[in-house]
Amino acid sequence: MSWELLLWLLALGTLLALVVQLLRFLRADGDLTLLWAEWQGRRPEWELTDVVVWVTGASSGIGEELAYQLSKLGVSLVLSARRAHELERVKRRCLENGNLKGKDILVLPLDLADRSSHEEATKTVLQEFGKIDILVNNGGVSQRSLFMDTNVDVYKELIEINYLGTVSLTKCVLPHMIERKQGKIVIVSSLLGIISVPLSGGYCASKHALRVRLPKLNSDRTDLNVYMGDLAMTERGHWNWGFFSTLQMELDAYPGVTVSNICPGPVISNIVKNSLTGEVTKTLGSEADQSHKMATSRCVRLMLICMANDLKEVWIAEQPFLLMAYLWQYMPTWAWWLTNKLGKKRIENFKSGVASRCGYDMLIQKRNDRFQHL
Prior knowledge:
Layout: H1 3-26, H2 32-40, H3 44-47, E1 52-56, H4 61-71, E2 76-80, H5 84-97, E3 105-107, H6 118-129, E4 134-137, H7 152-180, E5 183-188, H8 201-211, H9 224-235, H10 243-250, E6 257-264, H11 296-309, E7 313-316, H12 321-330, H13 332-351, H14 360-371
Parallel strand pairs: 1-2, 1-4, 2-3, 4-5, 5-6, 6-7
Helix pairs in contact: 2-11, 4-5, 4-11, 7-8, 12-13
Protein name: Dehydrogenase/reductase SDR family member 7
InterPro entries: NAD(P)-bd_dom_sf, SDR_fam, SDR_family_member_7
Pfam family, one: adh_short
């Protein structure tokens, strides 16, 4: 075999490998590290047994499904949310479908915005089970409203629940984990903690706060344009770590205590239906077609894989949302251009009453059409 033929075969093999990887990415529903862990990593069935897991936001959506899947692993569960009757419903189903007894599940109503109650709630869990192995900060609320139509109290509520509530509960639980030198802090953030879209400014801000640290406005740099320039540098990929990324570094002396930041994209749930609008007292109250969203069961399965493998950050989303996350991370100029185009369509749909649909739907339809021919 001549060298020339060998080089041609090598080039052809490389090209074929790239095509295969591209097709895999087009069908991917998680970032590459997460999917590798699903294939070659530790299984939740091995790692997440005989542990105590505290799940906030457990009354619906991702939190509810997480409770069901965890119950099948034989863990002890603490279910928290504001609606006690919904938590009781979730508990009954866990007992029906899982491997648990009544004593293995504690229903603990909790309001993340009531930070004064978090210390007592933590004591209640420790009195009941003696330990907390995993805290899943899943509780939160979303938003659907234009900035000019939104009361500032809405933004305050979003920060109180999504950011400060999560920080407060973590601060109550963490000393126990440090004392034991083991434990997992899991934050269910959002892809909107990486990217930004119109109509969800307050929600994006609360999720970015968990992940991205904004530059400080120093006393000798009072020009707003300079500050916005610093923000632009942050968005162009310079790592400005947020709260829980900082916490990961501060816990370096305790390798048994891990922090995982999970960023789901659109997932079937009631989060849009329960979104705040222009006033704190008003929610959207309606939900459009969710066929373009990821199945909740698949999202939770990938979350469990993240927890079993102690991954620091994962992105869970189908295309084109996953692609948008990669663009924002590595090609922000292109991401800005594309997001502006799709954002205009999202605003138009919102104003016409199509509350939860956006410009991404056109990309989704094109994706589905292509896949039917693959």
